[in-house]
Design goal:
21 strands; 23% strand; eight-stranded mixed beta sheet; alpha+beta
Amino acid sequence: MPSTPMAPHGNDPWFVHFSNLLGSAVLQPDGKSAGKLVDMVVHTGEPYPPVERLVLRAEGRRRVHLPWSDVVEVRPDALRVREGVVPSPGDPPLGPDRLSLRKEILDRQIVDVEGAKLVRVNDLQFLVAKGGLRLAHVDVGFRGLVRRMGWERAVDRAVTSVRPSSQYLRSDSLLSWKLVQPLDTAPGKVRLEVAQRALGGMHPADLAEIMEDLDRDQRAVLLERLDVETAADTLEETSPEVTAQILEEVAPERAADILEEMAPDQAADALGELSGETRRELLAAMEHPEAHEVQRLLHHDPRSAGGLMTPDRVQLQPRQTVADALAELRRRAEDLPLVYEIFLTDRSGVLVGLCTLRDLLLAPVTARLGTIAREPPVTVEVDATLRDVADAAAKYNLVSVPVVDSQGALVGMVTIDDILSEVLDGR
């Protein structure tokens, strides 16, 4: 059996940077070089992946590789292997749960799921302990980049002479490997499940901001790692142009599932950015009720009340009771994440009143809605402009503006968040 790799200071755990090991000599027991280290392969099936193979550049610039089990000593500037080691030619095959660190992680973008941001890997940090080398941290700071360039000592001296208390000297920008998710690679099953749970816990607005910063291929990779509901919530926070680009990069069936989960007005905005052929394909793949709602919205100008409105609302009749309204709210809780009021219409669908949530909470459950309803302060028709809708919301301090057709029938509502989004996008 090979002996246990040793640290410079005995068997105590210690850290070493990838940049310090890259290019270092891999020495045989007699001191001869087996080659220079150019890459490492890790097994991603654990929270802190162990190094499994070393990739070397041998004489004649040949690339060879050998298992980590052949290593008997680790130093910051060199590795030593056991006697009789015969490296295998070429690069090691990368099966499931394997990552080539230099090719697939270094200099790549990753999602920091704790900080909810997109960062670039400038260096990696390993823990040397118990005979193994484990990937512990990624370095996303400027100092990691300086170290990679080989300028760390010179820059440290220069900064120390000018500003010895500088934050640059006191801390590295290290992220635990468990808190990041590679975007340009396909990690193994265990690693992927950990990442999906972490990504699913991020706020959709943070995920959307990350999406905006990625290129098209990376967006598609990240979207595939989100469940349908989270993907829909995220795309509702991105611009229609970005949403359309992303939907074009995934399979039509998955794109249709995501569109069905999105708010109809947001789905219509995204589909409006697609070519006619792609739009028809996705509408055909959607369930009929959702597709029908979205198609109706597509007939309106995107910046009109008809284009901005969502058809999702709670609509009851005056003869129904507060208990009926509360039961309907509970029934549709999953469909309507935000509810501001319920609308009352007559049998022909004409808007005749509304009740706020406060009205419902203060009234007896047996009270008929018509007895506690108030008259809508304003309505807008489907062809009203964004300015008309914004003016109505501002004048009457509304969180939603009801939209009616030419006969006064309720067809939807424009919420304040959609108004603000359009106003801010059009600045």
